[in-house]
């Protein structure tokens, strides 16, 4: 990951959750949380928000239509395809991906601002986006939220009732691909209990050694 000609060293130990020794690089505070659809990312991230209000959470842009209860500017910035593509063309997205027919992306500027202010920043994005962040910022910490079992994930995704059958099937296919890539992540956190998973995540973000973390490595 560090053979990319960057002019600062990338700590080999950083992928074990240790404090990178790359100097005062605020970018190392970026944490990417990925995981298959239905694993409970939103619940865990919501709990994390309550646990540590100092963490800054990125609000993505998406071409997906809002679900009932979703608020523009809070859950996502809902945009049309033309607006989204203009953001790509203008270099205003840190990463973006197409996921089950819609586009999702992370606005670059707010992330850079949060990191420049020294706030820990969290992105909740899918696998292709996580890979782009890893390539652009090797010191970012990548965490994959895992379901306790595949059956549990299928149950959660089909029981959610927010998508039609075809969309559920597409998300399950994506989920399989995402889980197959778990080994690319620095940490894997099993979401058996939302509160525990959020605490585990918080430990990783704040670099607290966590006994539990090792159980899932
Ligand atoms: P949903 O439609 O369920 O809100 O999100 C679908 C998937 O897109 C989820 O895995 C979610 O984490 C991911 N996602 C949300 N925002 C972004 C983003 O800005 N970039 C990328 N690459 N994925 C995102």
TrEMBL record:
User: Which CDD domains does the UniProt entry name for this protein?
Assistant: GMPK
What domain of life does the UniProt record list for this protein's source? Answer: Bacteria
Q: Which GO terms describe its cellular component?
A: cytosol
Where found in the cell?
Cytoplasm
What keywords does the record list, in alphabetical order?
ATP-binding, Cytoplasm, Kinase, Nucleotide-binding, Transferase
> Region Disordered: what ranges?
1-28
Q: Where does ATP bind?
A: 35-42
| Membrane spanning stretches | none
Output this protein's name: Guanylate kinase
Q: Which SMART domains does this entry report, sorted A to Z?
A: GuKc
Q: Species name for this entry?
A: Amycolatopsis eburnea
Which GO molecular function terms does the record list?
A: ATP binding; GMP kinase activity
Guanylate kinase-like domain residues are 28-206
Can you state which reaction this protein catalyses? GMP + ATP = GDP + ADP
Q: Main subcellular localization, coarse class?
A: cytoplasm
Q: What is its EC number?
A: 2.7.4.8
Query: What is the similarity comment for this entry?
Result: Belongs to the guanylate kinase family.
- Role played: Essential for recycling GMP and indirectly, cGMP.
Key word Cell inner membrane present: no
């Amino acid at each position: 990951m560090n053979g990319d000609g960057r002019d600062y060293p990338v700590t080999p130990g950083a992928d074990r959750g240790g404090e990178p020794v790359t100097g005062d690089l605020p970018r190392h505070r970026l944490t990417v949380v990925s995981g298959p659809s239905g694993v409970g990312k939103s619940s865990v991230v919501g709990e994390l928000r309550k646990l540590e209000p100092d963490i800054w959470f990125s609000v993505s842009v998406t071409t997906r239509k809002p679900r009932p209860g979703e608020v523009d500017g809070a859950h996502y910035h809902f945009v049309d395809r033309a607006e989204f593509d203009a953001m790509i063309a203008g270099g205003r997205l840190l990463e973006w991906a197409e996921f089950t027919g819609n586009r999702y992306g992370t606005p670059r500027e707010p992330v850079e601002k949060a990191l420049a202010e020294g706030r820990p920043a969290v992105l909740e994005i899918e696998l292709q986006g996580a890979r782009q962040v890893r390539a652009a910022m090797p010191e970012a910490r990548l965490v994959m939220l895992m379901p306790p079992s595949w059956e549990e994930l299928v149950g959660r995704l089909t029981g959610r009732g927010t998508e039609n059958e075809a969309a559920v099937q597409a998300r399950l296919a994506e989920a399989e691909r995402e889980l197959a890539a778990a080994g690319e992540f620095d940490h894997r956190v099993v979401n058996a209990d939302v509160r525990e998973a959020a605490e585990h995540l918080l430990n990783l973000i704040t670099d607290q050694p966590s006994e539990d973390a090792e159980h899932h490595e």
